[in-house]
Amino acid sequence: MGTYRIAVLPGDGIGKEVTKGAVEVLQAVATRFGHKFDFAYGFIGGEAVDRKGTPLPNETLDMCRQSDAVLLGAVGGPKWDGNPPHLRPERGLLAIRKEMNLFANLRPVKFYESLADSSPLKADVIRDVDFLIVRELTGGLYFGKPSGRLVENGEEAVVDTLLYKREEIRRIVKTAFELARKRRKKVTSIDKANVLESSRMWREIAEEVAQDFPDVELEHMLVDNAAMQLIRNPKQFDVLVTENMFGDILSDEASMLTGSLGMLPSASLSTTGPSLYEPIHGSAPDIAGKNKANPIATILSSAMMLRLSFGLDEEAAAIERAVQQVLASGYRTADVAKKGQRAVSTREMVNEIKATILDQEAIWNIMAVYA
Ligand code: NAD
Q1: 120-258 has which CATH code?
Q2: What are the residue ranges spanned by the domains of the chain?
Q3: Are 267 and 71 in contact (CB under 8 A)?
Q4: Is the CB of 108 under 6 A from ligand 1?
Q5: Could you tell me the distance, in angstroms and rounded to a whole number, from the CA of residue 16 to the centre of ligand 1?
Q6: Is 248 in the pocket of ligand 1 (CB under 6 A)?
Q7: What DSSP letter does each residue of 231-297 carry, written as one string?
Q8: Which of the listed residues 280, 281, 292, 345 should we mutate to test ligand 1's pocket, taking the one with most ligand atoms within 8 A of CB?
Q9: What Å distances lie between residue 6 and 9, 66, 68, 115, CA to CA?
Q10: Please, are residues 243 and 164 in contact by the beta-carbon 8 Å criterion?
Q11: Residues belonging to the active site
């Protein structure tokens, strides 16, 4: 039994709905296992711009630093699309990653038998898919300077900079190898070494790190080929490691293997303090406030939090099992519902998952009586 402080940053759009669902599921876990989760709430993104004049207020950052882990929804929306760069919601996201040293983003992609028909890909291509994307999160094009508009020889131009320090590459590749060691022992390092110097250095460092992991196989793959292989033969992958932007794009592509962006959780690990857990999807303005969002990505992110930040393996497995059971019973939000199938609301899905977690306890209690 333990007490854990969790900072909750709902953000914008469906971020609010899905974090509310995940918090309720965590409360069900607390009831079942006798833990205490203390939730503290903060603003980030567009709502923080509106209320505090900045996408990442200092009080939000302080609250996150003082917590044991952070649960984030999503940020952004058309309301803020015309804002200057420093007042864009996404700036809050990049800032929290940098400020909290969230260098490694883990995105597991797992096949659910019950969702075999929800993916646009054939069931025999995606059946048994189980891989992990390890995305570098605090370097590369999203952070490099200079970045902005300029005039070159009298002509309007623009620049973004892809910058990595050797140590930044080494630590993310090492993380991938460590994770692969606990899985099927294969790392696919993704780059664009036929064109980019940054990728050639990435490849060199991956080879160096591999020397310390003789039990783990390393293969290199060009990002364009990787994009194709993810669709052609996704079962070949165990752990993929790649730089920030490639990882961003490939993980959205990979979400289609499970049927929806609404299914994919993520963990962002820190070198220095609490880690952050968030779904990989955005704020989905097209369905925000309509009680339609799939809360599973955020609920599974909270399971990752229990396992990786608190070491609560059994509790994490209880959430994952409940999600599997609810899907297997036929409950589907609109994004994964088949044609003609009734889609449940966000609320119904959350209630089902909570009830299943608590039911698991009831079954366990009955078994204990008869044991
Ligand atoms: P998005 O991920 O918000 O939505 C893409 C599509 O997937 C939409 O059709 C949406 O309805 C659907 N979708 C996403 N999550 C879903 C869920 N849980 N359940 C059901 N359907 C879901 O991406 P977008 O439309 O490109 O971006 C919208 C806003 O979100 C933008 O402002 C963008 O900058 C922001 N964004 C934020 C994050 C983040 O906070 N981590 C990530 C990506 C995009």
Answers
A1: 3.40.718.10
A2: 1-105+261-371, 120-258
A3: no
A4: no
A5: 13
A6: no
A7: HH-GGG-SEEEE-HHHHHHHHHHHHHHHT-GGG-EEEEEESSS-EEEEESS---TTTTTTT----HH
A8: 281
A9: 10, 9, 6, 31
A10: yes
A11: 142, 192, 224, 248, 252
- For atom 30 of ligand 1, the residue with the nearest CA is 282
Helices (H), 43-105: 46-52, 58-65, 89-99
Q: Quote the pLDDT of residue 178.
A: 97
pLDDT along the chain (371 residues), means of 10: 94 98 98 97 98 98 98 98 96 95 96 85 92 97 94 96 98 98 97 98 98 98 98 97 97 88 95 94 97 98 97 97 95 91 96 94 58 54
Whether the domain at 1-105+261-371 and the domain at 120-258 fall into the same CATH topology: yes
Coil, strand or helix at 5: strand
* Single-letter code of the amino acid located at 363: I
* C-beta 335 within 6 A of ligand 1: yes
The answer to whether the CB of 286 is under 6 A from ligand 1 is yes
This prediction has a pTM of 0.92
CATH superfamily label, 1-105+261-371: Isopropylmalate Dehydrogenase (3.40.718.10)
Q: From the alpha carbon of 284, which atom of ligand 1 is closest? A: 3
